[in-house]
UniProtKB/TrEMBL annotation:
It comes from the Eukaryota. Its EC number is 1.10.3.2. The keyword Aminoacyl-tRNA synthetase does not apply. The gene is LOC116193760. Its cofactor is Cu cation. CDD domains: CuRO_1_LCC_plant, CuRO_2_LCC_plant, CuRO_3_LCC_plant. Lignin degradation and detoxification of lignin-derived products. This is Laccase. Binds 4 Cu cations per monomer. It is found in: Secreted, Extracellular space, Apoplast. It is an enzyme of class 1 (oxidoreductase).
Length: 536
């Protein structure tokens, strides 16, 4: 079935939140933007018409885009941006996936307000591998700045320092009851006694991992990043920007109002933000003046609460939904990720230096021609293929690393043979401070086979990897001062971005791309670009 969304007008809209108004970039005037519904197997065509002063591009986060990298969306990676007054039709088929994902702008910091849900239902007649919920509700977590977000990051880049944090977190666009703006109650979720609801929770925030919980109610986790997991019950989930989590909630009280909270998780010593967004679970028949049952969100450094959730995740790995974990490895990669300091004579506030970020000591430089075009049309001089498989030098990454380690800069990609298998260890470094990094890989799902604190030990740690039912995702939190190991198969030809989904870290250069060669078979090569592909 072909689903055409020809309504995606990108326009400015004056929007009020937290007792203040500002013009924001929106899709169709909505914040959050419209939900895109489809079924597994559908061909989706979304025409994006740009009517704002910024260049735009839209990414379908987590959609595999098998052979259709031209529709992936990251600006200057798979396409040149859509210029003001222009349009582009994103045309892709949803193959072998169903669940909750998100779409968002993939240029500048426009993602702050240009985002929405993607709901991919199973093929007609195919049930969920859990009891059918009474209703399904999209819950989008986000952030709100009183000032213009482009001004926030431009200011930071000029000074060399970190940008301001947001003024509030939001649940479906609303901060809820916050002390400095008491007028709004926030998002309300109406429920009926005895019924079960599926919440499709999405973290669309720019820079914040979030806890999510509901007073008096357990969450049964059934899916993350549009892959089914073995169901388990828990009080609090943690969700990083770019991640999605489906939970079942049974309304097992007879009546009442129950507080829903979304609060930051940042087990980093330099994090400064601690605002909780609230919403309300409201039982039908409950009187309006009933007191809301409250709950206290975990403290922002509650690593144990986060780990309790993360370590409970397992692929469903059933007959129908097997976990196809690569058992052998062709490319064995070790990438350090972290922040560093580079000289910047013009950075006054930063005392002549600026914060940067890197992978294997390379701070990625955005090209001015899209990498995928350069690859497909053999345009030389746009990128090099010498991205290192290992960091240039080894040191103790998590205890006392060398201070002021300077990065190199370049537009480097790592080349993968089509259909080869990859093991990639992502090691956090503590050069400025250990930080959480939710790393997102475009074009693939991967299996999270191992995780640990401190330095990865290449002899001992792999013996403990889970190659049976590890969770399958597209975005994974690398623990602060630790590492994760992922495995995937390079079965998608093209150029695929990988980056930290904290937008500030991406801006600072925590990004790179994989180039996957064409396969030899008829159905293994990248398709040619559509004729309306934007030009740089
Ligand atoms: Cu959700 Cu490259 O991003």
């Amino acid at each position: 079935k072909v689903r055409k969304y020809t309504f995606n007008q990108v326009v400015m809209k004056n929007t009020t939140s937290l007792c203040s108004s500002k013009p924001i970039v929106t899709v169709n005037g909505l914040f959050p933007g419209p939900t895109l519904y489809a079924r597994e197997g559908d061909n989706v065509q979304v025409k994006v018409v740009n009517n704002v002063k910024y260049n735009v591009s839209v990414h379908w986060h987590g959609i595999r885009q098998l052979r259709t990298g031209w529709a992936d969306g990251p600006a200057y990676i798979t396409q040149c941006p859509i210029q003001t007054g222009q349009s582009y039709v994103y045309n892709f088929t949803i193959t072998g996936q169903r669940g909750t994902l998100l779409w968002h702008a993939h240029i500048l910091w426009l993602r702050a307000t240009v985002h929405g849900a993607i709901v991919v239902l199973p093929k007609r007649g195919v049930p969920y591998p859990f009891p059918k919920p009474h209703k399904e509700v999209v819950v989008i977590l986000g952030e709100w700045w009183k000032s213009d977000t482009e001004a926030v990051i431009n200011e930071a880049l000029k000074s060399g320092l970190a940008p301001n944090v947001s003024d509030a977190h939001t649940i479906n666009g609303h901060p809820g009851k916050v002390s400095n703006c008491p007028s709004r109650g926030g998002f309300t979720l109406p429920v009926e006694n005895g019924k079960t609801y599926m919440l499709r929770i999405i973290n669309a925030a720019l820079n914040e991992e979030l806890f999510f919980k509901i007073a008096g109610h357990k969450l049964t986790v059934v899916e993350v990043d549009a892959t089914y997991v073995k169901p388990f019950k828990i009080d609090t989930i943690v969700i990083a920007p770019g991640q999605t989590t489906n939970v079942l909630v049974t309304a097992d009280k007879s009546s009442g109002k129950y507080l829903v909270v979304a609060s930051p998780f940042m087990d980093s010593p330099i994090a400064v933000d601690n605002l909780t967004a609230t919403a309300t679970l409201h039982y039908s028949g409950t009187l309006a003046n009933t007191q809301t049952t409250l709950t206290i969100p975990p403290p922002k450094n509650a690593t144990a609460v986060a780990n309790n959730f993360i370590e409970s995740l397992r692929s469903l790995n059933s007959k129908k939904y097997p976990a196809r974990v690569p058992k052998t490895v062709d490319h064995n990669l070790f990438f350090t990720i972290g922040l560093g300091i580079n000289p910047c004579p013009s950075c006054k506030a930063g005392n002549g230096s600026r914060v940067v970020a890197d992978i294997n000591n390379v701070t990625f430089v955005m090209p001015t021609t899209a990498l995928l075009q350069a690859h497909f049309f053999n345009i030389s001089g746009v990128f090099t293929t010498d991205f290192p498989a290992n960091p240039p030098f080894r040191f103790n990454y998590t205890s006392t690393p060398p201070s002021n380690l300077q990065t190199t800069r370049g537009t480097k990609v790592y080349r993968l043979r089509y259909n080869s298998t990859i093991q990639l260890v992502l090691q956090d470094t503590g050069i400025i401070a250990p930080e959480n990094h939710p790393i997102h890989l475009h074009g693939f799902n991967f299996f999270a086979v191992g995780k640990g604190l401190g330095n990865f030990n290449p002899k001992k740690d792999p013996t403990k990897f889970n190659l049976v039912d590890p969770v399958e995702r597209n975005t994974i939190g690398v623990p602060s001062g630790g590492w994760v190991a992922i495995r995937f198969r390079a079965d998608n030809p093209g150029v695929w971005f990988m980056h930290c989904h904290l937008e500030v870290h991406t801006t600072w250069g925590l990004k790179m791309a994989f180039l996957v060669d064409n396969g030899k078979g008829l159905n293994e090569s990248l398709l040619p670009p559509p004729s309306d592909l934007p030009k740089c």
